[in-house]
Specification:
alpha/beta; three-stranded antiparallel β-sheet; 11 helices
Length: about 290
C-alpha cells in the first residue's frame, strides 16, 4: 500500500538547488530538438482572421520554455494575450523580470501579459464563479500536469475552454523517467504530485474526449548520473532526489523500495564511454478542438 509523503514540491528552495545539479550533468529544458518541435507546433496555428492570439500558460515556472514560445507567436501575430498561471511567487517574479528585460530590448511589444499567482484549480473555479466565457486559442501545460490535484478532470475542463480550432498542448515525461515514476507511485503518494507520465495522461484523455484530434511528438533525452551510484556523493543524492522527487530518498526509503527503484533506474540507463546516462524522454500531446 502506498504511503503518503511530502515530495520535493513542498520544499521549493531545496528543489531548485537539486534541479541545478541535474542541469549541471546535462539535463536541459531547452534544446535544439525541442525548439524545432515548438516551432512546428506553433506554426500549426492559423493566423487568418485573428485580431489577437490568446494563450493560457499553466505552471510556467520562470518561463524558460515560454521564452521560445513567445518569440514564435510575437513574430507571427499582430497581438498576443499571454495569461500566466503559476502558484510559485518567486518563480513568477523571475518570469516578470524576464518580460521587463525584453521590454527594455524593445521586444514582445505586441504581447500583453497577465500574471496570476494561483493554482489551476483556483483559476478554473474563479472562471466558473464569475461565469467567464472568453476562451483561448492555445492552452499549454508543460511538465506541470503532474501537479494538478485532478489532472485528468482539469485537462478535460481546459479542453472545454478552448475556442473552436484551439489547441491543448501537454508536455510530460515519457520512457525511462515515466517508468521510474510509475514504480515510485507503487510505494508513495502525494496529493500535490502524481507519479505518472504521458502514456497514462494520453490514454485517459482519449477515453474522456473521444472526438479529440490528437498529435504526439517524442524526444529522447539523457543526462549523466554516475554519482547516483555513489552513496556518499552529495551531488549524486541531489540528482537521485530530483529523479524520484523525494527528499533524501537514499536515507529515507526502506531497502525494499530503494532496491526496486534503483533496479528500474539501472534498467533504463545506457553507457556512453565512462558515463552512465539516464533517459529523461519527453512527449508532447497536441489536442485540437
Amino acid at each position: 500500500m502506498a504511503v503518503e509523503i511530502k515530495t520535493l514540491v513542498h520544499y521549493p528552495d531545496l528543489y531548485f538547488k537539486k534541479y541545478a545539479t541535474v542541469i549541471k550533468n546535462g539535463f536541459t529544458m531547452k534544446d535544439d530538438k525541442k525548439t524545432r518541435d515548438l516551432t512546428e507546433t506553433f506554426e500549426m496555428i492559423s493566423c487568418d482572421d485573428k485580431s489577437e492570439l490568446r494563450i493560457l500558460a499553466i505552471g510556467t515556472g520562470q518561463g524558460l520554455v515560454d521564452e521560445v514560445i513567445i518569440d514564435l507567436v510575437s513574430a507571427r501575430f499582430k497581438a498576443v494575450v499571454y495569461v500566466v498561471v503559476e502558484p510559485a511567487e518567486a518563480e513568477l517574479q523571475k518570469f516578470k523580470d524576464m518580460v521587463s528585460v525584453k521590454a527594455g530590448q524593445d521586444q514582445w511589444k505586441n504581447v500583453t501579459f497577465k500574471f496570476l499567482c494561483t493554482t489551476i484549480e483556483d483559476f478554473l473555479d474563479t472562471r466558473s464563479k464569475t461565469k467567464t466565457t472568453e476562451g483561448f486559442d492555445v492552452i499549454h501545460t508543460l511538465h506541470s500536469t503532474c501537479h494538478f490535484i485532478d489532472p485528468h478532470g482539469s485537462l478535460v475542463e481546459l479542453y472545454g475552454i478552448l475556442d473552436k480550432g484551439g489547441m491543448l498542448f501537454v508536455m510530460l515525461v515519457a520512457g525511462p523517467w515515466e517508468r521510474t515514476n510509475v514504480k515510485i507511485g507503487e510505494y508513495y503518494f502525494d496529493p500535490k504530485v502524481h507519479f505518472f507520465g504521458m502514456s497514462a495522461v494520453r490514454e485517459k484523455f482519449l477515453e474522456q474526449i473521444k472526438d479529440a484530434k490528437i498529435m504526439t511528438k517524442f524526444r529522447a533525452k539523457r543526462f549523466r548520473i554516475n554519482e547516483c551510484f555513489q552513496e556518499d556523493s552529495e551531488e549524486g543524492n541531489d540528482m537521485l532526489d530530483c529523479i524520484t522527487e523525494i527528499l533524501d530518498f537514499r536515507k529515507t526509503a526502506p531497502k525494499e523500495v530503494a532496491d526496486a527503484v534503483f533496479d528500474v533506474i539501472k534498467e533504463n540507463c545506457v553507457k556512453s564511454g565512462d558515463d552512465i546516462m539516464f533517459g529523461v524522454d519527453e512527449e508532447d500531446m497536441l489536442a485540437f478542438k
